Amino acid sequence: MPNNAPVGLSGISGTLKAQLAFTCAYEKDRNPPLDPDADKLFKHARYLQKKNLLKEDRQVYPEVERLYRIAAAHGHYKAAHNLIVFLVRSRTDAEDRVTLPAGLAEGMIRAGIPQGYFDMGYLLHNGYGVKMDAKASLKYFRKAADLGSAEAQWYIGDKLSNFGFANPVPYEIGNAMIRCAGDQGHGKAAQDTAILLKLDAKDLAPPLAEKNRADALRYYQAAIKAGVPTAGLENAFARVPDELGVQKDEERARRYTIITNILEGYSYASPMVEELDEIVPLPPAPLPEWDGKLKWLEEWEKGTPPPLPEEERIREMAHSKGLDPATGRPLKLTPEPKAEAEVPPAPPPRLATGGPCPRTGYWRCVEDGKTLRFVEGQLMPPAVFYKPANGLLNRLRGIEREYSHNGPGHWDWVGEGNKG
User: Fold this and answer.
1) With a cut of 50, which residues of the chain have pLDDT below it?
2) What CATH number does the domain located at 14-302 have?
3) Where are the domains positioned within the chain?
C-alpha cells in the first residue's frame, strides 16, 4: 500500500504547499475487476497490435479495432485506453473516430477510473474531439495523479521536479509523485527515482547515504523488471568504486548487459522481465544458475496469440451492447430515410476548428490540405502545421517539410460523395 502521509513540506510557503500537496495513491486500489472474456479480447487485440508494430499492415487494424471495441463496451478500461490511442492515430475510417475517444474517457471518469482522467487530459492537450485547452488538460492530468495513475504521477511529477532546487515546493512534491509511480511499477519513474537517490547519497552522511544507495539499487531493479533498459546496475557491478557502493561482480554485470540488450532490441513491444529477481537477485543474495533465457522473449518468439472466447460468445457480447459482431461498431438498426426532393441547406463556406460540423460529408483543411469525412455534430479537429525540413539528409531524400505542431485552423466544404 502507498504511504498515505502527505509530503513533508515543513518551513515552506503554506499557500503553495496546499495547492500542490500530494498523497501517494495506487490505481489498483480504484480500478474495478475486469470481465474475464473482455480481458481475453483485450489481450488478443494487444498481441495482434504489437506483432504488427513493425509491419504496419493495415489489414490487421479492423480485427484489433473490433476486439478493443467489444472489450471496452464491457467495461475493460485498458481496452478503452488502447482504443482511444488507436482512434487518435487514425487507424480506422469509422464515423465515430473523432467523437468516441472523449466518450470512452468520460465513461471511465464516471466509473472513477484514474485512466479516464489521464486520457481526457491527453485529448484536451491535443484538441482531439474536444476543444484544445492546455489549462484544463493539466487539471485532468493532476486529478489522474491524485487518484493513482502512475503515468500521470510520472508526467506531472517530472514537470514539477524540473523547477529544481531553487523552487523546493514543486521540486519536492514532483519527486514524491515520481517515486509513487515507481512504487507502482512504472519503469521510467523507478529509474528517475534511482538516479535521484544515487545523486543525493553523495551529500549524505552514514547511515542515510547507505539507505539511499540501497533504495537506489531497488528502484533500478524495478525499472529493469518493467522493461527499461537502464545501465545503472550493469555499470555498478562492472567497476569499483561505484556510487552505489556495491562490490565488483563480473557475472552480475554480464547478466545485466544481456538483459539490457534484449530490452533495447525489443523496446517497441514493451518487454518486461518479471522474473529478474530469479536471474540477478540484488546482493547479498547469491546468483542462481541461469540459462540465458527470458520468459517474455520466449513467449514473443513462440508467436502464439492469447486465446479468444468462442466466436458465438463474442457475438453475444457484441449484441448485448448494440454492436456489430463483425466490426465492433454500433449497429445501425433504423437508418434515417433520405428525402429525395429535399435539398439540404448549404453549409457555411468555412468552419473554424473546434466547432461542430453542420453537415455530413468531406471537408478540406485550409492549412494542411488534408481532406476528411465528418459526421454532423462532430467537432472539427485542429490543423497540422509543418515547417521546412532541416538537415542535408532530409533534402537528399526529397523531404521538404516536417511536423511542427497542431493548432487552430479552418475547414472548407468539399462534398458528400467523394473527396473531390
Assistant:
1) 1, 3-12, 333-335
2) 1.25.40
3) 14-302, 351-415
